Amino acid sequence: MKRLMFLLLLFHVSILQADIAIVVPVNSPINTLSKKEVSNLFLSRTNRLENGKKAILIEIRDYRLRDTFYRLISSKTPTQLKYYWTTLIFSGKGKPPRSFSSKENMIDYMKRHTTAISYLDSSDITPDMKEVLRFPAPE
Q1: Would the pTM of this model clear 0.90, i.e. be above it?
Q2: What residues does 60 pair with on adjacent strands?
């Protein structure tokens, strides 16, 4: 039992200590994004890129990574974020990114949509993606 608890704690710490990369498809016209642009896109303040094209926001269903990412871009706790999305959805002003059950499904989708933007652990970047911004591991 102690060993299991140690492994769970180690896993939890390792997830939160990784850099988070903002990625787009390798063939995307997007080469860089600022933290403010990422925040505005992922919080549904805008859905357009600087060139006027619509951004397609996607994410993997990984709640630890998600919670860490949104805390970095908005300083919101998971509870605050849930309230934020509920308010936007019911007011018709926005919706959260499309969620995928696996990294493979997300990558397949990303390959078909050049304006797709996502975030993931920097160690999960594949040759099908390019990094446009990196957030250092939170301390």
Answers
A1: no
A2: 100
CATH class of 19-135: alpha beta
> Measured between alpha carbons, how far is residue 83 from residues 87, 91, 113 in Å?
6, 12, 29
Burial 58-79 (b: 16+ CB within 10 A, else e): bbbebeebbbbbbbbbeebeee
Provide the residue-wise pLDDT of the chain in tens; the chain has 139 residues. Answer: 555 444 444 444 444 467 999 999 999 999 999 999 999 999 999 999 988 899 999 999 999 999 999 999 999 999 999 999 999 999 999 999 999 999 999 999 999 999 999 999 999 999 999 999 999 977 6
Is 111 within 8 Å of 128 (Cβ atoms)? yes
